[in-house]
Amino acid sequence: xxxxxxxxxxxxxxxxxxxxxxxxxxxxxxxxxxxxxxxxxxxxxxxxxxxxxxxxxxxxxxxxxxxxxxxxxxxxxxxxxxxxxxxxxxxxxxxxxxxxxxxxxxxxxxxxxxxxxxxxxxxxxxxxxxxxxxxxxxxxxxxxxxxxxxxxxxxxxxx
Length: 159
Ligand code: C2G
Prior knowledge:
Layout: E1 18-20, E2 23-25, E3 29-34, H1 41-51, E4 56-62, H2 64-71, H3 79-87, E5 94-98, H4 104-110, E6 115-119, E7 134-138, H5 146-156
Parallel strand pairs: 3-4, 3-6, 4-5, 6-7
Antiparallel strand pairs: 1-2
Bound molecules: [cytidine-5'-phosphate] glycerylphosphoric acid ester.
Organism: Microlunatus elymi
Keywords: Nucleotidyltransferase, Transferase
InterPro entries: Archaeal_FAD_synthase, Cyt_trans-like, Rossmann-like_a/b/a_fold
């Protein structure tokens, strides 16, 4: 499926955009992954920055089962709720369920991604995909995390 990307043309790609009538169909696809539980500014900022690296942003949202295997607890928001939240963000063009950490190369190929973006807490972990696409690690937003938010809510509830 080719989608008309939003009008985000990084200068380097301006010339590769193919005008079709009035609509510009461009072709840089960015992919990223995450749990995005208890959505916060750290999530929103990494998605906005990822979107700026291309014309469409596709996000793999971890399934509840994958989240449990990664973090040893169930997410606060179910995968359907997290898909809906992330899918409704302005910077996001498409969401899908990430079933496993080991399917990165399949997802990159399936979505014809040109750029894989992750926060630098995953630095180096996906370099093995660099023959398929560009791999970019972006600085995390300091001093905010879902785990800290959950602890904060738990300790202040009823305070
Ligand atoms: N993030 C960030 N700043 C924060 C917290 C998170 O930039 N303060 C970024 C992370 O680096 C990641 C994305 O937001 O790129 C999603 O973070 P999580 O929901 O914690 O996802 P994670 O459990 O790291 O899952 O296949 C990879 C995994 O799905 C990533």
